[in-house]
C-alpha cells in the first residue's frame, strides 16, 4: 500500500508533524511511567485502526523491555490480569477519550476519578495530552493511509 500523502516530505505536513512530535516529547518530563504511555498509545491506535501507530508503539514498547504478553492483552485489558490498577485506569481514560463520539457526555466522571486516584496532576495532564496527541497522529495516518510494518524501534527519535 502506498500512502496518499508523504507526511514528512510535504512542507506543510512536515512542519505540523515536527510540532506535534515536539509537543509529545514534552510529556516525558511529566513523571507518567513510560510503560503507561506506551499502553495508552497502543490502545488508542488499536481503537482507531491505525496500523502505523500500532506497529510503532508495539515495537518501541518491546524494545524498551515491555512484556509481549501484556502488549498482546492490551486489546482485552478488561479481562486481562496482567495490568496494574493504575494502568487499567489509564486504559479506561484512553478508551473513553478516544471514543468521545460514542458517549453523549464524553469522558465519564468515574473514568476521570479512577485516573485521578493513581496519577498526580502533572501525570493526568500527560495522560490527557498523550491521548489527544495519539488520536491526532492516528487520524493523520489513517486519512493518508500510511503503511504499517516497516517501522524500526526509535526511528522517529
From TrEMBL:
Protein's name in the database: AhpD family alkylhydroperoxidase
Gene3D superfamilies assigned: AhpD-like
Pfam short name (any one): CMD
Lineage: Bacteria, Bacillati, Actinomycetota, Actinomycetes, Streptosporangiales
Transmembrane segments: none
Record InterPro entries: AhpD-like, AhpD_core, CMD-like
Keyword list, A-Z: Oxidoreductase, Peroxidase
Record SUPFAM superfamilies: AhpD-like
One Gene Ontology term of the molecular function aspect: peroxiredoxin activity
Oxidoreductase keyword on record: yes
Residues covered by the Carboxymuconolactone decarboxylase-like domain: 12-95
Amino acid at each position: 500500500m502506498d500512502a496518499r500523502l508523504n507526511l514528512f516530505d510535504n512542507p506543510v505536513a512536515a512542519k505540523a508533524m515536527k510540532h506535534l512530535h515536539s509537543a509529545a516529547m514534552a510529556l516525558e518530563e511529566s513523571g507518567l511511567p513510560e510503560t503507561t504511555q506506551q499502553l495508552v498509545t497502543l490502545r488508542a491506535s488499536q481503537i482507531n485502526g491505525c496500523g502505523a501507530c500500532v506497529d510503532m508503539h508495539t515495537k518501541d514498547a518491546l524494545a524498551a523491555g515491555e512484556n509481549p504478553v501484556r502488549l498482546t492483552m492490551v486489546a482485552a485489558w478488561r479481562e486481562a490480569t496482567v495490568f496494574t490498577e493504575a494502568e487499567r485506569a489509564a486504559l479506561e481514560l484512553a478508551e473513553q477519550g478516544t471514543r468521545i463520539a460514542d458517549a453523549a457526555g464524553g469522558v465519564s466522571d468515574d473514568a476521570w476519578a479512577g485516573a485521578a486516584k493513581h496519577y498526580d496532576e502533572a501525570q493526568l495532564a500527560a495522560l490527557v495530552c498523550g491521548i489527544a496527541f495519539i488520536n491526532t497522529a492516528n487520524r493523520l495516518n489513517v486519512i493518508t493511509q500510511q503503511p504499517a510494518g516497516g517501522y524500526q524501534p526509535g526511528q522517529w527519535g
